[in-house]
Design a protein that fits this description.
By secondary structure, the protein is of the alpha/beta class. The chain has one domain (about 5-10, about 75-305): von Willebrand factor, type A domain (Rossmann fold, 3-Layer(aba) Sandwich). It has eight helices and ten strands. The chain has helices at about 5-20, 55-60, 95-115, 140-150, 165-175, 200-210, 250-275, 285-300, and strands at about 35-45, 65-70, 75-85, 120-125, 130-135, 180-185, 215-220, 230-235, 245, 275-280. The strands form three sheets. It has a six-stranded mixed beta sheet with strand order 5-4-3-6-7-10, with helices on both faces. A two-stranded antiparallel sheet has the order 1-2. It has a two-stranded antiparallel ribbon with strand order 8-9. Helix 6 (about 200-210) links the parallel strand 6 (about 180-185) and strand 7. Helix 1 crosses helix 3 (about 95-115) and helix 3 packs antiparallel against helix 4 (about 140-150). It holds the Pfam family DUF58. This is DUF58 domain-containing protein. InterPro entries: DUF58, vWFA_dom_sf.
Length: about 300
Amino acid sequence: MNTAEQALRRLELTVTRRLDGLLHGAHQGLLPGAGTEAGDSRVYVPGEDDVRRMDWAVTARTTIPHVRDLVADRELETWALVDLSPSMDFGTADTDKRDLVVAAVGAIGFLSSRLGDRFGAFVIHDEYVHRMPARTGRPALYGLLHSLMDAPRGRIVDDPPDLAEGIEILSASRRRRGMRVVVSDFLDARPDLDPDAERPWERPIRRLSARHQVLAVEIIDPRELELPDVGRVAFADPETGNVREVHLSPKVRQAYAEAAALQREGTRRALRRAGIAHLVLRTDRDWVFDVAQFILRQRRMSHLSPRRPT
């Protein structure tokens, strides 16, 4: 068994052991939705459950208020937009951003495949947005993840596709309702440090969310948030190849940290305005724990969300 195969088996085992238990039973995914199929009744919890889901027949029979849960639709299509641009070939902690991208896509894929959903991907790499067809089953998912792992490091190209273009392609290619996942660092070529400014990808992702459930997975390395006190350093822009030497004085490091915080806050606000679920994964943290916490938060909040038209 080669190294890539062993890595994928370890990833599947990690997801199965640490995340699969959260999805035991009903057909539920990362973003639990209202669905269309009636499920079981349970006791009404004041202040948490939506009264519109009250099961009046059971309530009358037991004299105790009950609500009826809805089971998510089956045999859905999950599509991921995977950012493998040069900025993802960076990492200073336990792993690099690209490896974390593969882990995130693998976790979503394994959780989707156990539910019988088809899983496919569009990959931003070099000057193209590559399409990997949606298929069911473990062998197809392994093939997709192998392709992501074996993809060459991103190279500098003229006029590469940006995240907004990738989202437009994802939105236009498959019209059937389902789940869409965007895995990226959400770094723009010319970042706007105004947190309230509209991001270049904001309108496309808002249009995408009008039809599908959308999850944004933001990949971050700690050195993108703050710089160490190491004196003079040569910085290379992976997207353009430009190199510049900078003396990391306390003033420079503080300005950098402030700008990075504004950039991240702008991403958070843009996704919130678009109504997108937002999962942050860092290369210096236990990503499985962060995914598990995200799933649990979404489950607790799902009853507060309005029912999506079907």
